[in-house]
Fold this protein.
Amino acid sequence: MSLKDFFRKFARKKTSTTEQFRENSADVTCDFVIIGSGFGGSVAAMRLAQKGYSVAVLEAGKRWKAEDFPKSNWDLRKYAWIPLLKCFGIQRISLLKEVMVLHGAGVGGGSLVYANTLMQPDSKVFDSWPKSVDWKAELEPKYVEAKKMLGVTTNPMMLEAEKALKVVSIKMKAEATFHPTEVGVYFGEAGKKAADPYFSGAGPERSGCTGCGGCLVGCRHNAKNTLDKNYLYFAEKWGTAIHPATTAVQIIPEEKGGYEVKTRSTTSWFKKKGRTFHAKNVVVSAGVLGTVDLLFKNKSVYNTLPNISDQLGNDVRTNGESLLGATGFDKNRDMSKGIAIGAAFHPDENTKIEAVKYPSGSNAMRTLSVPLTPDGTRLTRPLKMMFAVVKRFPKLVRVWFARDWAKQSVILLVMQKADQKMKLVMKKTGLLRRPKLAGAPSENPVPSYLPVAQKAAGALAEELKGEPQNVISEVLLGRPATAHILGGCMIGDDASKGVINTQHEVFNYPGLYVCDGSVTPSNLGVNPSLTITALAERFAAQFPAANDDLYKQRQITYTADKKPSPCGGKGACGSGCDGCGAKKDPAPTPPAPPAPPAP
Ligand SMILES: Cc1cc2nc3c(=O)[nH]c(=O)nc-3n(C[C@H](O)[C@H](O)[C@H](O)COP(=O)(O)OP(=O)(O)OC[C@H]3O[C@@H](n4cnc5c(N)ncnc54)[C@H](O)[C@@H]3O)c2cc1C
Ligand code: SF4
């Protein structure tokens, strides 16, 4: 090889993240472009890369290392997502007409800011899903796989917040349903580094959970099983190129087949143009608000995908959610220790209540709380709130000025299976008449007042000897708040009934898929990320391997699946084991020599 060839090859290696990519400074060509790196996008990226496809992931948010997460949610630059103010943190809060949505941003999507809770819903929820698929049978093995990938285990820490929730469950006569949560956290020795505990040593190094309560501001201890520690880790290991701070803007069908995806830099001023990507297949996984917004703009603003079904934006659900809480006045009770959501109970068959905590010092969420207020209309409920402020003023002052609100408070996350819905629509708003996503009511609208939730908040305040609170959007604006928005890109038999078919392909656009929370066909009554992961596993399973040899090499061996070695891994039992589980059967014992003939 000439010196010139050598340098050319070297330069190519440096600019290209995978050998399979054709990439120059302007355009990238690959088999799959995935928009968004949350639960749907990460699973799709890893499984497609595992099968030998070239994959590029576009993520609007930033990439985070454990030590980069904010120490508290007052560090708005690192915590909040407000691009106008140059805040590119992990927590988005979108106040739309009809709903307030909490969602995530960054490489790993909602997993960076979420509360680690990974619960499998009751299989009865599938009864209302499209009948052409046996969801229970198809998803059950995918749940098993998803749990192993996300390292799901039972929370072992029953601390103050969990104890308080238990008392609430007793007060509401539902003690029998009280249980610790299933979570994606590594509970090794607290704060101690350990070799990969999940993937037989093939995954990244981890550290044991310290119970600092910081999960909702990003785990600084490398203990939370965020997607960059599992699905995205392997996706990148197998050649996937992740492009952070890259917002997908336009999806344009190409004449030769496939799509062009135009992007812009998320973090630069004046929406600087980003790279253009070309791919046979595009998977939109931008989370409900990201996906519905992107598809609406391409359908009716840029007119690049005009034939997307008019069902887009319909059947949006909030997981039947309400957010409330209580602040206690006993400064010696520290509610902020443990993992973000450690326990739950069911006050009735339809409802699940979880206790949520922020770490000590993370008091920013106090700004979203108002006194617990009885039901009313959009006019009378704010008036009732004013009345509550006057009536309970001295106690409220203690809440507003509590030195460490997070340490003294427990938030209740209430979820219901009831089938209430709303719509997302694209509306021209503001002076500039810019098209923006907005909520709109639908039949059976989502309530902003749940009597069972109010009762639980009252009981919690009693237990904490403190003051119960509602979330501001529910009381002042009549808009429910949710961290679990679902739907908007429904699965249907044809374009008159849904946006995508049962294989997640967008009607009228071959090779364009949707894979994230927006395809979930019902409320789940439990936290949704495990179900989104299982659905994404099912989606990715439909594609054949592009390279059989690579696919064989790229199989994952889960540590949890290994059988214990008979001799404790010392190789002394003679089983042929090399210390990583009993691999070979022991050599058969030779038959006993025949007994000598009797004299
Ligand atoms: C505070 C909080 C706590 C939560 N706790 C839990 C919990 O304990 N358990 C649970 O199951 N769920 C929890 N959730 C919900 C969970 O995070 C979401 O249900 C889940 O992340 C949704 O996954 P997804 O694949 O639909 O998309 P997401 O995870 O939301 O990912 C979408 C990604 O796409 C990116 N994106 C958007 N638009 C574009 C674009 N145009 N171009 C490029 N990228 C784009 C976004 O930045 C984001 O990173 C919580 C959510 C919040 C906000
Ligand atoms: S409690 Fe602290 S250490 Fe444990 S997962 Fe949450 S943030 Fe990480």
